[in-house]
Amino acid sequence: MSGKSRRDFLKSTALIGAGVTGLSATAKASPKNILSEDRMGVLVDTTVCVGCRNCEWACKGAHDLLAGNLESYEDRKILETKRRPDHTALTVVNEYSPGKNSNLPIDVKVQCMHCDNPACVSACIVGAFSKHENGSVTWDTDMCIGCRYCMAACPFQVPAFEYDKALNPKIMKCDFCFDRTKEGKLPACVSICPVEALTYGSRTELVKIARDRIKKNPDRYVDHIFGEYEVGGTSWMYLANKDFAELDFPNLGKNPAPGVSESIQHGIFAYFVPPVSLYALLGGIMWISKRRKELDEEVK
Amino acid sequence: MSHEVVNPVPIKHKYFTPGVFVLIIIALNGLVFLMGRFFFGIGAVTNLNNQYPWGLWIGVDVAAGVALAAGGFTTAALGHIMHKDEYHAIVRPALLTAMLGYTFVAMGVFVDIGRWYFIWHPLVMWNGNSALFEVGICVMIYLTVLYIEFLPVVTERFIGKVNLPGFLSGLNKIIDKILRLLDRGLSKTMFVFIIAGVVLSSLHQSSLGTLMVIAGPKMHPLWQTPVLPLLFLLSAIAVGFPMVIFESLIASRSLGLKPEMHILSKLGSMIAPLLGIYLAAKIGDMFIRKTFVYLGEFNTASIMFTIEMLFGVIIPLRMFLSTKVLKSPPLLLTASALVVFGVLLNRINNFVVAYNPPYSTESYFPSFGEISVTVGFVAMLVLLYRFIVLNFPVISLPGKQTAAQSKYTIRGGK
Fold first, then answer.
1. From CA B11, how far away is CA B159, in angstroms rounded?
2. Is B125's Cβ below 8 Å from some Cβ in A?
3. Which of A16, B137, B216, B295 lies 20 to 30 Å from A45, alpha-carbon distance?
């Protein structure tokens, strides 16, 4: 019920916006792009994370990727180089030098942010990406044509591609354990985390928790919840005791990533009026110039 | 009546020359790497990775390919829609270039997408929010329109001349009948397709510019702007005629024909204003967004931008203003080649150079395999073009305009 009213609200805002500015920056929610009031999210508290990388292991297990044994993840040497999620690991942990009031290194888990207005959903040529009511952004293997436009579009550089496969290469990214949460289970990474650095819950609730933590421990955190407003908000949000730019988070505005391109796209195709008018105009020119030529010839 | 009558004929010239053999070798080399791509995956042949998902194939084979095939719709607008009959001699060669150009664009897409066997998916799975979807659908329809526009050349070639060997000869009469029927239907409905071709081109040429808008801050501000669709459309319109001139001068030289300077000079005189409009839009956008500050930085982006604007727009714009250039084949060829180079570089810059992923550990440069495939495609295109103009009535012979534009009844009577 509340989800519906919110959608209606969004719709009317978009309409008013479009009416006022012509090119509204309000992203029009596509039918699949549902921003449910009680969509879920995860709050990552990087001041709690110890870099044990159990989440990496659990994630691989939950997604049928080669995981190896858990002991091998105790080797912290791998943390010396910065890694990105790819087709072999949908989430990775990177380590950074300590921030304010602490001498412990900062560990940052990286995965898909599950944007509220995902660029990949907007960009995908066949609509293979979907934003679900529970917040997760997933990818449909049966639709994808492998054009990799999602990768060019994603502001966080998350989707990865199986470049080494000649047949059925897949786009690989965190799916927020869509199959597990459907059954009421926690995402694999959240359920294994031994220090509760990851909190799973409704996004609204998580924002409250995060604000509360910052308020109660102003020395421990910088006053910024990364993901609360970035690119229009993300389902995964971060707390840290260091400026997020120093933790390799991209500096993104508050506007949804697909906003401008969708406005242009819908502007060019507004109810097919521009193309049809152009067609009519050209037809008119063609008819007039032909008629003129005929008249010229009759005169001669 | 000073009507110039156009009489396109298959050119009589031998197909194989040393240059053609070189092209065949280049095309075969491309095919070898193409096989590698299909047997071992995109990663085996290209330098693409998760940081740089799009490279040479999208930048050149697709984006630049579409732009450089713009001669098709600009000459169609000039010759058919504005009814400037004096340009009819160049409409067919331009149409052929566009048809082959778009065919190779489609092949470029086919080899670049990871799941090529699903290339038909956009036809049934629609995402109206996606600029790429718009480009894909428009290009598919436009390619069909181009084939339809080219059909009269085929019917003209074969009507009254269908001569199948052996037992198939019984079909000669019926095929001839079908061709005549097709020809009659097409000449009545062709205007629908011609206008559609211009509309479709305007749409996808501009939407191609929308493609990288969604990449937002990943793109260098010298190129990233919300008016990219307009810039792409204007530059496509500006490169249409230079491409036709470039191709016409090269073809007449290669086939030993006299260059059609009386048409090409007039066509050339229209380029300066078109380039001027594009330049004005580009500079206006730079001043509004205050991006000229990035030109002061000395790096790849600023150098590439300067080369693109100076050699691709400003110098040829000045050249096309000069009557001397318009009347001299080598100078006209140079000026046209510069515009073609400028648009080619602009598309490479937009899709490859300007793209700067947030987490890049290395920069992208196309592999030998990628370059081989792209160059191989160009070679195949030229070989096909040569084959078609030698066998189909595409090029009008200059100085042979005495024959009345004949319909097929005369030639049809065996």
1. 18
2. yes
3. B216
